[in-house]
Amino acid sequence: MDTLGRTRPRHATIKVRNFLAVPAVVEALGADPDAVARSAGLDPAIFADPALDVPYAALGRLVRACVAATGCDTFGLMVGARQGATAPGLTGLMALNAPTVGEGLRVLAEGLKTSDTGGVVLLGCSGGEAWVGYHVIAPAIDEADQIVDAGAAIAFNILRAMRGLEWRPLRVRLTCKPPRDRTPYARLFGAPVEFGAASARVVFDAALLDAPILGRDPDTAAILAPLYAEALAAATADFVSAARALVRAQLGAASLSRESVARALGVSERTLVHRLEARGLTYSGLADEAKFETAQSLLRKGETIADTAARLGFADQSAFTRAFKAWSGAPPARWRTERGEG
C-alpha cells in the first residue's frame, strides 16, 4: 500500500476548446468520434460548445477510449499538433500579443487556469537554455502521458506562432514510453526527442525569451487586457497546486530548493512556509510527495533503481531505497515486483 499522504485539488476542469481537435483525429484514424465519446460517458454534442467546462477526469477517460478505438499510441501528439496556438482561448490570444516570447510564455503559464485547472504550464531557464512544459496535476488521470504529449505539441505550436513556422527547438523531452513509431514526433518537432523523462519540456535557446513576437498587435493586446484581467480574477487560484507543480518540475535539478520555489511563485520563503502551514503542509512534505510520485512513474516505465535515484537527486541508491521504503512501506525492488512490473 502506498503510505505517503497527500492533498489534491478537487474537481479539476478543462474547457472543450483545449481538446477540440479530438473528433477530427479520431475520424482521421478510422474510428467513429461519436461512438468513442459515448463509450467514455460523454455526449458528442460537447464539441459544439468550445467554452464548456468538463471534468478533467472525463478528458482522461475520453483519451483512453480514443487510444483503444484507434490503436494509436501517438494519439495525444496528433491532437496537440492539430490544436492551434489559440487553443487556450483568451490566454492564447494574450500570449501571442505580448511584447516578447518570454512575456508571452509567462502569460500562458499564468492564465492557463482560466481554461484548464487540471494541468499547469511550467517555465524554466538554466545554463543558456530555456524550456516550457505541461504537467498534469489532477489526480489519477487516465492516459496522462498522452495528455502531456498534446500539451507539449500545443506549446510547440505557440512558439512557432510567436517566431515563425520555421522555428524549431533544441530538443524535446516527454514523459511517455517510446512509441512503436517515433516518426510523428520527429516530423512535428524537427528536433531530438527523449522519451520516459521525469517531466515534459520543449527546450530552446534562452536568448529567444527576449525576442519580439512576430505579428504582435498592440491594439489587440490593449482590447483584450481588461477581459483577460477579469478572467484571471474569476479563475480559482490554487497556491498548493502551483507549489506542488514547481517542485515536481524542478526534481533532479540543482536549483530545487525552498528558495527557488518561493521565487518562482513570487513570494518570500517565509510566506511560502506560512501558506503551506495554513493548509497543514510543508515544503519538505511536498518535495517527498513529488519524489515518490516521480519514482513510481519511472519504475513503472522500467527505469532502473540506480537511474531513478540519480534522476531524483539522491546521493546513492541506498539513500533512495531508504526513502522509498519510508514512503511506500516497501523497498523499490519489492514494490515493483508486487505490482508485476519487475
From TrEMBL:
Segments forming a coiled coil: none
A GO molecular-function descriptor: DNA-binding transcription factor activity
Keywords, alphabetical: DNA-binding, Transcription, Transcription regulation
Pfam family name, one: HTH_18
Entry-linked Gene3D superfamilies: Homeodomain-like
Annotated HTH araC/xylS-type domain residues: 241-338
The organism's place on the tree of life at top rank: Bacteria
GO cellular component, one term: cytosol
Matches recorded under PANTHER family: HTH-TYPE TRANSCRIPTIONAL REGULATOR GADX
Protein name in the entry: AraC-like DNA-binding protein
Organism of this sequence: Roseiarcus fermentans
Lineage: Bacteria, Pseudomonadati, Pseudomonadota, Alphaproteobacteria, Hyphomicrobiales
